[in-house]
Amino acid sequence: MTTEVTGVDRTEGLRHELYSYSGEAQFLDGALSFIDDALAADEVVLVSVPESKEQILRAELAGSDPRVVFMDASELGRNPARLIPAWQRWISERTGQGRPVRGIGETDWSGRGAAEIAELRYHEWLLNLAFTGSPAWWLLCPYDTDAIDPETMRTISECHPFVLESGVHRPYPDYVQAPFLWDDLDPVGEPFEEFLYGKGDLAAVRDRVSAFAMPYGLRGERRRETLVAVTEVAGNSIVHGGGRGTLRTWVQQGTLICEFHDDGVMADPMVGRRMPSFRPLSGRGMWLVHQLCDLVQIRSAQETGTTVRLHITLPPA
């Protein structure tokens, strides 16, 4: 099984390709043809898909070709910001073997709320930026049109420069090469607590968050991780955001939300989404925040300053 390829330049960077499908049969058609073409070219294929899709792919693949590597992304949790560092790690481990690399990456959409969907859309847009100048590799992104509403599907499709459609790999005419347009943050939940902090107030920030979350069962290691994350964000406000900021905390649908606002600007769209190097030690704070929180939303502009929302899933009541 082979597919036709048009408009391909694989000298460097990512070839980011959309594959929209409906039903298991169409998923298999696209994924298996992609894998077959890769193996015919002696390329490694890294497959990161939901467990149900992995099972049907394994059942269809004859034998266990070592060039097809299945990767479990469930350990990353539901925070899309962890996906780019994971792909960077997976790709760096394989490019050293001297073979070109392909990937199949599909996200589990079950139970996703509006905030997670907005971050997934940003993740797809950032992929084109994250791998500019990297070793050449090819990522196929299957999207189940039965599980995603049409408007979300349209906006995500626009983040892909290429498409697999009717057996043909080609440039995608609906790709939008423009600055990312954010969805507005949801309104602050009611009731909420507010605290204005400045230099010398990091301990008070931790105490406020701890006291607010304790009645909701946030204890032990999860509490300690949350306090590390809020310290990092509040510290950024004090050092880079004008020396002060505003903390708001509330609980919404089983999730603790800690919102920080200051007058600074985060100019780097990849902040917190790069795999940190060993040196220098600075610049790792927001990466650590993404590892510790279940979701992180960042909105930053010269006119409005920076808002960072940390989402921490609370234990069942």
Task: Explain what this protein looks like in three dimensions.
Helix content is 33%, strand content 25%. It is of the alpha/beta class and 317 residues long. The chain folds into 2 domains: 4-171, P-loop containing nucleotide triphosphate hydrolases (Rossmann fold, 3-Layer(aba) Sandwich); 193-313, Heat Shock Protein 90 (2-Layer Sandwich). The strands form 2 sheets. Strands 1-8-7-2-6-5-3-4 form an 8-stranded mixed β-sheet, sandwiched between helices. It is elongated and about 60 Å long. The protein starts with a strand and ends with a strand.
Characteristics:
2 domains, Heat Shock Protein 90, Rossmann fold, 25% strand, single chain, alpha/beta, eight-stranded mixed beta sheet, 317 residues
Strand order of the largest sheet: 1-8-7-2-6-5-3-4
Main sheet specs: 8 strands, mixed
Care to count the β-strands?
A: 13
CATH topology of the largest domain: Rossmann fold
Outline: elongated
CATH class of the largest domain: Alpha Beta
The class by helix and strand makeup works out as alpha/beta
Count of the domains: 2
- Based on CA atoms alone, the radius of gyration comes out at 21 Å
Write the layout of secondary structure elements.
Blueprint: E1 4-5, E2 14-21, H1 24-40, E3 44-48, H2 51-60, E4 68-70, H3 83-95, E5 101-105, H4 114-130, E6 137-144, H5 150-157, E7 162-165, E8 168-171, E9 193-198, H6 202-213, H7 220-240, E10 244-252, E11 255-262, H8 285-292, E12 295-301, E13 305-313
Helix pairs in contact: 1-2, 6-7, 7-8
